[in-house]
Amino acid sequence: MKSRTVIALWIAALTLGVIACIVQFGGNEDIVAKTNLVPGDKILPKFPIREITKVTIKKEDQSTVLVRIDKDTWGVAERANYPVDYRKLRNLLGALSELEVAQGYPAGPEHMGNFGLATSGDQDSEQGIQVLAEKSDDSNIAHIILGKFSGTNQSAGRFVRTTSDDSGVYAVSETFPGITADPQTWLGRNFLKIEKIKTIAVSAPSDPNFKSWKLIRHPNTDGTVNENGQLKLEGMEEEEIMQITSTNPLRNLLSAASFIDVVTENQANDTANPDIKLKRQAVITTFDNLTYTLTFWPQMSKPMSTKNDPRLPALQPNYLLSVVVSSDDQTKLNMHKVHVGRIYQISQNTVSPLQKKRSDFVKSKTKPTAVTPPVRVPSRDALTPARP
User: Fold this and answer.
1) What is the pTM of this model?
2) Long-range pairs of 210-214 with CB within 8 A, sequence gap ≥ 24
3) At 158, is the secondary structure helix, strand, or coil?
4) CA 63: distance to chain centroid?
5) CA 171 to CA 39: how far, in whole Å?
6) What is the model's pLDDT at position 222?
7) Distance of alpha carbon 66 from its chain centroid, rounded?
């Protein structure tokens, strides 16, 4: 039999097989798995942002609940409703409302871990970040799970699924950068911004050996106010002189400060260093007639990890800080009401300028030393005896 004939017979057999399959299944489209949504469809077609009053972000045993306090104010429930990072929340809700399908992938519950969309499991990589949006009556608006990144890098998109759609998972172009279920990451970062400092006074209420000090902004030579003048130590002794450069870190103190976290009073008590002598109080006044009373004290140092190089310096403890603001101007006080009753966790660097000792600002005057007249050395000719 010629080779051409053999090939023709094989083609005919394959064609008959395909026809038989079509006849058997009758062109039933059910044999091809599909997702409910197709590319271009919105993941959450009904997502009324204005009706949302609570957003829960959860992964494993960690969760953050963001609650609407009033029309334009949201708080982090785990931090006693401390103001939320509104820009971050707005970006999240906006991204969810515009989320579109790039590609659908039919998948059953047993495959969710492969996409990082499981709601329970042993491996962290299998767990998705759940985002639940609710109305004021606790009714569910949307429940979406964010999974692994859909490409080789974090800018390529992400896999997502909703609890109301069990047909599969979807790849989307949105990456939801930086989203976590850690309450700390959702805190608004507007913090103290002390400007136009007039005086700084530091004391140690529980340490009788600490010598309190006070710096005052020096006026112009004609006695007029100089808001940018040099800070000088009050009550200097006659034999002391000011070390001018020692006040440089204090000239713009807390003008751009930040905090790590907000803690409860119980958390502060549990983590504070028990040595009360280490507690300091700083009273700062400004040319805007504001008075800030800052009380700060160290937390207990964390032990060095066994993985750390023992040659490295020990970890510096973080500090706890409470703030009281007073003023005759109620409008200015309202701008600082977020600090009322709060205890902040801050880095040691934030308060290090306030940990100076009085002796750091001055040095003793040196007595002038007696001037010794120069010794006249005879010339060589004078030392050489005359020839006879």
Assistant:
1) 0.79
2) 210/277, 210/357, 211/357, 211/358, 211/359, 212/358, 213/356, 213/357, 213/358, 213/361
3) strand
4) 17
5) 9
6) 86
7) 16
Render pLDDT for 307-362 as a digit per residue (tens, 0 to 9): 556 665 556 899 999 999 999 999 999 999 999 999 999 999 999 999 999 999 99
Summarize pLDDT for 259-282 with one digit per residue, the tens: 999 999 999 999 999 999 999 999
Q: Rounded to 5 degrees, what are φ and ψ at 361?
A: -95, -15
- The torsion region of residue 49 among left (phi > 0), alpha (psi -120 to 50) and beta comes to alpha
Please check the confidence at residue 188 and state whether its pLDDT lies above 90: yes
Question: 244-249 long-range CB contacts below 8 Å, 24 or more apart?
Answer: 246/356, 246/360, 246/361, 247/215, 247/361, 249/352, 249/353
Q: Which residues contact 355 (CB under 8 A, 6 or more apart)?
A: 280
Query: In the block, which residue shows the tokens 């859909």?
Result: 150
What tokens were used for 166? Answer: 């069990």
Confidence of residue 377 (pLDDT cuts 50, 70, 90): low
Nearby residues of 161 by Cβ (< 8 Å), 6 or more positions away: 112, 115, 117, 128, 144, 145, 147, 168, 169, 170
The secondary structure of the chain in percent helix, strand, coil, rounded to multiples of 5, reads 25, 30, 45
Q: How many CB atoms lie within 10 A of CB 71?
A: 6
Q: What is the pLDDT of residues 141-164, one digit of tens each?
A: 999 999 999 876 666 799 999 999
Calculate the average pLDDT of the chain. 85
- Tokens for 141? 């608006």
Distance CA 183, CA 177 (A): 16
CA-nearest of 258, 247, 262 to 193 is 258
What is the amino acid identity at position 84? V
The pLDDT value recorded for residue 16 is 31
> Position of tokens 């260093």?
273
